[in-house]
Amino acid sequence: MEVSIAVSEAVKLANADVIAAYPITPQTHIVEHLAELVAQGELDAEYVPVESEHSAMSACLGSSAAGARTFTATAGQGLELMHEVVYVASAMRLPIVMAVANRAISSPLSVWGDHSDVMSVRDTGWIQIFVENGQEAVDNTICAFRMAEDARVILPVMVHLDGLHLSHMVEPILLPDQKEVDEFLPQFNYPLPLNPNKPVTMGAFAPPVVFTEAKWAQEMNLEKSKEVILEIWKKFGDKFGRYYNPVECYRCQDCDTLIMTMGSFSETAMMAVDRMRESGQKVGLFRIRLWRPFPYEELRRTVKNAKTIVVLDRAISLGMGGPAASELRNALYPLEKRPKIVGFVGGLGGRDVSPTDFETIIRRGMEIAAGGSNREFEIYGVRE
Amino acid sequence: MTWKDIEIGGIVTEPGSASYLQTGTWRSRCPTYDHSKCIKCAICQTYCPEGCIHQNAEGYYLADLFYCKGCGICAKECPKKVITMIEEKE
Amino acid sequence: MSKQTTVDAKERFAPGHRACIGCAEALAVRMVCKVLGDNVIIANATGCMEIVSSQMPFTSWTVPWIHTLFDNTAAVASGIESGLKALTRKGVRDMSGFKVVAMGGDGATLDIGLQALSGAMERGHNMLYICFDNEAYMNTGIQRSSSTPYGAATTTSPAGKASIGQFTWKKNLPAIAAAHDIPYVATACPSYHRDLAMKVKKGMEVKGPAYIQILSPCPTGWRCPTDNAVEVGRAAVQCGMFPLYEVENGKYKINVVPESLKPVAEYLKSQGRFRHLSETDINKIQQKVNQNWGKLKELATN
Q1: Cβ contact B40–C2 (<8 Å)
Q2: Does the domain spanning B38-90 belong to CATH 3.30.70.20?
Q3: A200 and chain B: CB distance < 8 Å anywhere?
Q4: Element (H, E) at B62
Q5: pLDDT band for position B1 (cuts 50, 70, 90)
Q6: Does the beta-carbon distance from B17 to C229 stay under 8 Å?
Q7: Which of A218, A245, A263, B86 has the fewest CB atoms within 10 Å, measured from its CB?
Q8: Which whole number is the average pLDDT over A62-87?
Q9: Using the beta-carbon criterion (under 8 Å), do A192 and B2 form an inter-chain contact?
Q10: Is residue C129 part of a domain?
Q11: pTM for this one?
Q12: CATH number of the domain to which C183 belongs
C-alpha cells in the first residue's frame, strides 16, 4: 500500500481521538485517508478540518491539553507556518504525534522532498525520528504515541518521512494486528489535563528570574526521554519482531570510510555500498534515526574506527553548509582521534540521488579528505 | 525556585494562588465610608475591578484594603455618595 | 439583607491580579467569570488579562485555563472542544457538562487571530468566544488595532500635524461573526452589568459558536481618570459609539435604546486619546455614528 495510507492506518490502529487536518502536498494523502476512515466509521475520532497549519497545531495543543490522543500531519510550508506553535507544544509538554512528509521550503516553490523543513525545527524540543521505508513509518508512528505519552516523557513526537520519495511509494507493508497494538499502547493519561474537577493554569508567563529554570527542566526531560525511547523500541521489537536504533549501521564495522545519510535515500546508499564492496572498496553506511534527542553516544561508538566520513545532507543551511554534517562534527569534535568529515549537500527539492551518484559522492569525498578543498562544504549535482 | 520545582510544562496547579499579592500597596487614594447613607444596593461591589468589596457583619459594603487599588470607581458609581476617596495617609 | 443578585458571590477572577488601577477589562472578566461558573475551560490569548493573571508560578484563575499564543485562541478552543467531545463519546471521561470559552483582546480577535476565529465559527464548534475590546493593543503599550475608533491617538497612530490619529473606522466584528451564521452574537459593556450577565448566560447555553464583544474601557490607554471607566463605558453606549445589541439566529435586537443618542462630542472630549480632534473631526464622527445607528435600527426592525 502507499506509505501515506499506511501511516493513516497506523494512526487508526493507535485509536487517535482527535485529528487536526490541513492538506499540503505531499502529506495530503495522510489526512485524506484519515478523513475516509472517520467518515466510514472505522476510526472513532474528532476530525477537525482546520483553516491553516498554524491552527492545526493550535487545535492539537488544545485537544492534547484536554487529555485526548492527538495527531496531525504536515510538510514544508505547513511546518513553517506552524513554527511558533511547534515550540509551544514541546515546552508545554503536550504529547502530540505529527507525521512530517519532508518537503523543500520555498522559495522557489517546490512540493518535492528534502530535509529543509526538518532542519528548521531542530531546536524546537520535539522528539524526532527519521524513517526510511513504509514499514518503519508504520512502526514508528505507533511507537511515537507510546513514547509521547509515557509518563516519564510526555513530549510531542515528529515522525519524518521523505515527501514523495517515501510518502507516495507503494510498498509491501505489514500492518500490525489491532489487538496487539492495543496491548502495546495503553490508554492515554495526561497527568494534569484541563478538567474543571481539578483546575490548572497552563501557559503562565515566565519573567527572567524563572525562564532559565523552565527551559532547563524541558531540556532535562528531553535528554532523559532517550532511555525511554530505547526501552520502547526494544519492547516493540520484542513484540513485533522489528527493532529500531538511534543510529543504524550498514556494513560499517570493518572499514575506514563511512557515509552518513538520513531518510529514504539511505536505502539507495546501501546499493552503492554493496556495489563498491563488490569491486573491492570497503565502505560502510550509517544513518541517524533518532534525530532528537541527539544520539551523541551511539554516533561516537559507530564511527570510532573510521578515518573518513562522507556526509550527504538533504538540506542546506545557507551561509553555513550541511546541517547534519555540522551536527556530526559537533558530536565528534571532543574525540581524541577525529575522522575527516567531508560534507556534501545534494538531493535538494526532490532531485533523485542514484546509487551511482552515491558512489561518486563517496569517491569524491575520499579525494577531498586526502587532498583538501577550497570550500567548507560541497554541493553535489549542480549544473555549472 | 530550582528547575526541579517547575511543574510539568510550567503548569500552575494551585487555583487563585496569585491572591498572595497585596495590590493595596499600589494605592495613592483610599475609600472612606459614611454608611449612614448606604442603602446596601451592592453597586460598589458590582463595579469593583478587583472584586475586593465585601459586606461586613452589619451588611454594609467595604473594600478590603489588602487589595484595594484606590481607583475610585466605587465612589463615582455609588448612588448615595457614601464613599469618598481621600489621599492615602502613610 | 442585601439585594438578591443573579450571579453568585464567589470571585473566580481572584483579587491580587496585576491589572491597572481602574481597569474595566478586569471588571468585565470578573463579571463574566461569575456567570460562567466553575464548569468551564478557558482558552486565553496573550494580552492584558493573560499577563496580569498568570505570572509563573502564580495564577488568578480558579477554573481550568490555558494560554498558548497570541493568534490562535479560537483554534486552541476548537481543539479543546474536539478533545472533550472525543473523550466523552469514546467513554474515556464524561466531559459533556463542561463549556469551552475563549477569551481574547481586540488585537487577538480582530487582527492576528481573526483567521482562527473565522475557522472556528465556520466549523460550528460548541464554544463561546468573548472579545474584551479595549480598542488597542494595550498590553504592549497602546498601539492601534483594527478596533481602535477613528481619530483615536495611539502610539502607532499618533495625532500630529500630518495625522488625525487612527485614520480608519472601527472594524465591525459582530457583523463578521453574524455573517458566519452562528447562533448567537452580542455586544456588551460592564457598565450594563445585567445585560452583560444575560448575554454571557445565553452564550453559554447556545449549542454552537457564540461571539460576544465586550467594550472594556481602559483608563490607561484612553487617557481618562481611574475612576471613570464605568461612566465612560455608559457614555459610549448612550452616544451610539458602542451600541448594545444581539443577533440571535440572524435576528437583530438592540438591547439599550436611548431616547435619543447623546452627542458624541461629550464622549470624545472626556478622553485624552481624542483630545486633539477638531470640531470638523467630531462632526465627521457624529455623521458616521448616526449612519451606523440608522443601519442597526433597520436591521433590528426587519
Answers
A1: yes
A2: yes
A3: yes
A4: strand B61-63
A5: confident
A6: no
A7: B86
A8: 97
A9: no
A10: yes
A11: 0.95
A12: 3.40.50.970
